[in-house]
C-alpha cells in the first residue's frame, strides 16, 4: 500500500460480494474487510480508504484495474451522486442473484433458519421507468460540480430541483433526466424549474427557512391518471396561482393538480391540508376488477406491475378456501385485503394512518366488497385480546410491516392468537429475519419467494409462508 494525502490506497483489491446500502465488499491481503462505493463483484480495483472503523474499512474506487464481467455502463448521468439506483452499473441478471443471496443470508444468519427449496426470485419486466410516484425537492443551494465551483467568471444560478445529495441534507442535485418514472415526469419537473427561473420564484432555503417552492410530487397510474402536488413554504397566493395556472395549461393531461402550504420544519404532508387546484383530488389505480383511489397522502406500492405480482404471490401462499377469517396487519389502504377478499370469509385490516383507513373503506365501497373491516390505530396497542374477542380468531394472518419490521408485542400477540398460517410480506429481509427468529419455535417456513420491486437498487421484497408447528 502507498499513502496519498491522508488517505491510504490499497491496490489490486478484488470485490467479492455486495453489502448493505448498495455497497460492495473487498478484502485486503491481510484479511481486512473494505466496504466500497460503486463496486461490482468481480472487479479488481485500487481503493482509496477514507474511513477506518473497528473491524472494517470504508473506501471508494481510486482506479478500476479489471472490470467485472457483470459491470455495465450506467444510463444515468447522476449515477453515484443522487444516492438512488446504486446498482445501475451491474447487469440485471446479477442484481437478481445478489438480491436473492441477501435474503438467504439474512434468514440464515439473523433468523437462524435454513431455507429449504426457496422459490426463484421474480424479476421485474421493466428495469427503468417503473415507479408511479416520485418526489423532488427545491433548494437555493444546489450541488455544484468542481468545474462550476472553479468558474469565477460567471454568476451561477444556485437554485436546483431534484434529489438530496446523500449526507448533505441541504444540497439538492439538479436533475434533467431521471430514469425511474415515465414521461411526462421529467417534462413536468423541468418545466416547473424553468418557469421558476424565468419568473424569479424563490427556492427553499434549508438554513434560513425561507423561500416559496419546497417540494414537487408526481404520481401516475396504470390507467392514465396523472397527479401533481407542489408544496409551498410561503403563502404567496398570487405566485402560487400563476404557477399552477401555467402547469394546468402546459400539461392538460394532469388530472389532479394540488398544492399545500407547509411552513413547518419538515416537509411531510400527512398533517397538512391538501388543496385541489384543478381536476379531481385523486387518481385511480386498477388491478384486475378492483379500483383504488389514490390521494396525495395515500400509500400505494410504487411499482404497479410488480405490486400485482406481489399480491398474487401473497394470495397463492395464503391458499384460501373461502371459509377463513384473515387479519391483514399494516394494511395501508387495504389493497391486499381487498385483493384476497373474494377468496375468504372475512378480512380485518389494521393500520396506524387514519387517512389510509378512510381510503381503504372508500375503496371497499367502490369495489362493492362487503366482507372487509378496517381499523385505525397503533398496531401494538390495537392488536390485543379485546380486538380478537371482538373480531374473532383469525385462521390466517397477513402482515406487511414497514422497514423496521413488527413490534415485539405484535409478534407476541400473533403467537398467542396462534393462526394456522402467517404470510409475512417484507421490504427489509433483515428485520423480517429478526421477526422470523422470534416465531421459529411456533412456526416453520414452508415457502419463501423474493420479488424485485426496485430494479437498479439493492432493495428487495420477500414473501414467506409460515405454518403452525
Describe the 3D structure.
The protein is built from eleven helices and 23 strands. The model has no long low-confidence stretch (mean pLDDT 94). 25% of the residues lie in helices and 32% in strands. The strands form four sheets. The protein has an eight-stranded mixed sheet with strand order 7-22-23-21-20-17-18-19, sandwiched between helices. A seven-stranded mixed sheet has the order 10-9-8-11-12-13-14. The longest helix has 18 residues. The chain is α/β, with parallel strands linked by helices and 469 residues long.
Mean pLDDT: 94
Q: Which structural class do the helices and strands define?
A: alpha/beta
pLDDT < 50 runs, ≥5 residues: none
E-strand count: 23
- Largest β sheet strand count, sense and barrel closure: 8 strands, mixed
Name the shape in a single word: globular
The percent range for strand residues is 25-35%
Rg to the nearest angstrom? 24 Å
The number of helical runs is 11
| Adjacency order of strands in the biggest sheet | 7-22-23-21-20-17-18-19
Helix content: 10-25%
Oligomer: single chain
Cα distance spanning the termini: 55 Å
Amino acid at each position: 500500500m502507498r499513502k496519498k494525502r491522508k488517505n491510504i490506497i490499497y491496490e489490486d483489491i478484488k470485490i467479492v460480494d455486495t453489502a448493505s446500502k448498495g455497497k460492495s465488499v473487498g478484502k485486503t491481503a491481510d484479511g481486512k474487510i473494505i466496504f466500497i462505493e460503486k463496486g461490482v463483484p468481480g472487479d479488481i480495483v485500487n481503493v482509496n480508504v477514507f474511513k477506518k472503523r473497528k473491524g472494517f474499512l470504508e473506501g471508494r474506487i481510486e482506479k478500476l484495474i479489471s472490470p467485472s464481467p457483470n459491470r455495465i455502463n450506467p444510463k444515468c448521468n447522476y449515477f453515484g451522486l443522487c444516492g438512488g439506483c446504486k446498482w445501475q452499473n451491474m447487469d440485471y441478471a446479477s442484481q437478481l442473484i445478489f438480491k436473492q443471496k441477501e435474503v438467504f443470508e439474512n434468514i440464515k444468519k439473523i433468523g437462524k433458519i435454513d431455507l429449504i427449496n426457496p422459490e426463484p426470485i421474480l424479476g421485474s419486466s421493466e428495469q427503468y421507468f417503473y415507479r408511479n410516484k416520485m418526489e423532488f425537492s427545491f433548494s437555493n443551494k444546489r450541488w455544484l460540480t468542481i468545474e462550476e465551483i472553479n468558474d469565477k467568471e460567471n454568476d451561477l444560478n444556485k437554485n436546483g430541483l431534484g434529489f438530496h445529495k446523500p449526507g448533505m441534507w441541504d444540497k439538492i442535485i439538479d436533475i434533467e433526466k431521471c430514469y425511474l418514472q415515465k414521461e411526462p415526469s421529467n417534462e413536468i419537473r423541468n418545466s416547473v424549474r424553468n418557469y421558476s427561473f424565468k419568473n424569479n420564484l424563490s427556492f427553499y432555503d434549508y438554513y434560513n427557512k425561507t423561500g416559496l417552492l419546497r417540494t414537487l410530487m408526481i404520481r401516475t397510474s396504470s390507467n392514465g391518471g396523472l397527479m401533481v402536488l407542489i408544496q409551498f413554504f410561503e403563502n404567496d397566493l398570487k405566485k402560487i396561482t400563476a404557477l399552477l395556472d401555467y402547469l394546468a395549461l402546459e400539461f392538460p393531461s394532469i388530472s389532479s393538480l394540488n398544492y399545500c402550504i407547509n411552513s413547518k420544519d419538515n416537509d411531510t404532508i400527512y398533517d397538512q391540508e391538501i388543496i385541489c387546484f384543478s381536476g379531481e383530488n385523486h387518481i385511480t389505480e386498477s388491478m384486475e376488477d378492483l379500483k383504488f383511489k389514490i390521494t396525495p397522502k395515500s400509500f400505494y406500492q410504487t411499482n404497479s406491475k410488480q405490486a400485482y405480482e406481489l399480491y398474487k404471490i401473497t394470495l397463492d401462499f395464503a391458499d384460501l378456501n373461502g371459509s377463513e377469517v384473515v387479519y391483514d396487519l399494516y394494511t395501508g389502504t387495504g389493497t391486499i385485503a381487498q385483493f384476497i377478499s373474494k377468496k375468504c370469509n372475512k378480512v380485518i385490516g389494521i393500520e396506524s394512518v387514519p387517512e389510509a383507513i378512510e381510503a381503504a373503506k372508500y375503496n371497499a365501497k367502490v369495489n362493492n366488497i362487503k366482507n372487509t373491516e378496517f381499523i385505525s390505530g397503533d398496531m401494538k396497542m390495537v392488536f390485543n385480546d379485546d380486538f380478537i374477542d371482538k373480531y374473532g380468531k383469525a385462521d390466517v394472518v397477513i402482515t406487511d410491516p414497514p422497514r423496521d419490521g413488527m413490534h415485539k408485542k405484535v409478534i407476541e400477540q400473533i403467537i398467542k392468537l396462534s393462526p394456522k398460517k402467517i404470510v409475512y410480506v417484507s421490504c427489509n429481509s433483515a428485520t423480517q429475519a429478526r421477526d422470523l427468529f422470534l416465531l421459529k419455535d411456533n412456526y416453520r417456513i414452508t415457502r419463501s419467494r423474493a420479488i424485485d420491486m426496485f430494479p437498479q437498487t439493492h432493495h428487495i421484497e420477500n414473501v414467506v409462508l409460515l405454518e403452525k408447528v
